[in-house]
Amino acid sequence: MTAPRSAIPRRAFLDLAGRVVVGSFLIYGAPGAVLSRLGGRAAPSKDEPPAEYDPQAHEWIFIVDTLRCIGCGRCVRACKEENAVPMDPKYNRTWVERFVRTAEGDVYVDSPDAGIHGFASPEVNEKYEDLEITKSFFVPKLCNQCEKPPCVQVCPVSATFKTADGVVLVNRGKCIGCRYCIQACPYGSRYLDPHEHVADKCTWCYHRISRGLLPACVTVCPVGARKFGDLRDPESEVSRLVDQLRMYVLKEELGTEPRVRYMQLDKGVR
C-alpha cells in the first residue's frame, strides 16, 4: 500500500512561488522578459532599426587586415563607450589578441585587458624573455555573425536570432540569461551582462549601420585595419577586396560560415 501524497494548498503554493521569484530578483535582478510577463515594460532595444530601413536590401560583411593592425586598443575602447559595455576587461564585444611566434615554431598569445590599453613590446615583456621571436602581430576579434550560428540553434526562447541582412542579434526582452548561447559560441564572443543578466555580444553596431553609419570600431581605427560594408554594393571597398583577394575565416572546419573575413591571416591563429 503506497502512502498518500501530501497536498500543498493553492494559497501556500502561490505564496512560496512568490517568495522564490522575489528572491531571484534580489539576487539576479529582473530580466526584461520577466518584467514584461509581470506587466512591467522592458526597455526598447537599442538595436531597433529605423522604420525605413530594409534589411533585405543589404548583405553586410566585416573585413580585418591583420598586417595593418597596430594593437592600439582604440577599437576596444570605442566599442565599450558606444555600446555601454562595462570597462571591466572580462566583458567585451571586441578585443585584440597578440600572436608571437618563436624560431622553434611555438606560438604564444596574450591580450592584456582585452588590448584596450595597447601592448608592451615583446622585448620588455617577461613572458617572452629568453625567447627568439621571429614574428609578432595583432588579431582583432569580434562576433563572426555566422551564417549558421550555433548560438541561435541552442537558445531555448529564440532570444538570439539572425536578421535578413546577416547580423545576429539578442532580443534582451526575451533573453532569460541561461548562458546556453555563451557556451555554444566557438569564438568566445559572448558574455552575460553583469547588470541586466542577459546575453550580450557584438552587433556590428546595428543601431549605427541601419542608419547609414559605420561601426564605432571601424570609425576610430587609425590605420584602416577594420573595414565594413555591403556586398550588395558592387562598388564598395569590401566587394572589391572580396573579389580580388583571398580571404580567411576563423575555425573554418566548424562549418559556421563566419561573415568576418581576415586578410593575411597567419595559420597559427585560431
Give a quick account of the main beta sheet: strands, pairing sense, barrel closure. 3 strands, mixed
Write down how many β-strands occur, each being a DSSP E stretch of 2 or more residues: 10
Mean pLDDT: 87
Strand content: 15-25%
Instruction: Report the structural category.
Output: alpha+beta
Strand order of the largest sheet: 9-1-10
- Kindly provide the name of the CATH class of one domain: Alpha Beta
Shape: globular
The whole-angstrom Rg is: 22 Å
* Distance from first to last alpha carbon: 62 Å
* SSE sequence, one letter per element: HHEHEEEHEEHEEHHEHE
Return the CATH architecture of one domain: 2-Layer Sandwich
Low-confidence stretches: 1-8, 16-44
CATH fold-type name of one domain: Alpha-Beta Plaits
> Helix count, per DSSP?
8
